Amino acid sequence: MLVLSVTVLAQSPRVALTFDDGPLPGVTEALLGILKQANVKATFFVVGRSSVLRPDLVLQIARDGHELGNHSYSHLRLDGLTDRQVALELSATSELIARITGQKMKCFRPPGGRLSPVCEREMKMQDLCLVRWTLNAGDSEMDLVDLSRHHLLSLIDKIRPNAIVLLHNGSEQTLTDLAAFIQALKEKGFVFVTVSELSHD
Ligand SMILES: [Zn+2]
Fold it and tell me: How far, in Å, is the centroid of ligand 1 from the Cα of 96?
């Protein structure tokens, strides 16, 4: 029976939920509560300058079993910075998260998903893998201008096996819809994994 359930689990389609731009007081706690309730592990791409203000939230993300990813220190467009600044944007965030949680950062997502040759070189030197997304939930401040077009629940049929879904800390709509979104995906047979788990087989 155990063998059967392991086999079923191994064959289940997988999806990785990713939450960018945190930690954000008042929102990150709510996200963590919803994820805990649903017994779902996700990945949080945190910003260094926000993490330094609320290390307790970063620690809570780690303690709840989620993966932490590096989303730069200042959330600036990296292609407009000097080589030295890019290196620091990555290393300062990794070092900060390691200090708070004891964990080594494995993944990096550049702000806006924009890469530059300098950024690629630094990622390699700092042993960080690139994680973009396969589906943008469209819940960033900018996208929310047109909510009807980017309703989280309307994305359910667009989620394919091994999808990486881009979500944000900050949207009321995401908090409202997240539990139903997760439940609908579970009913379709999806299992939830972190981005590292997704890339490791
Ligand atoms: Zn971002």
Answer: 18
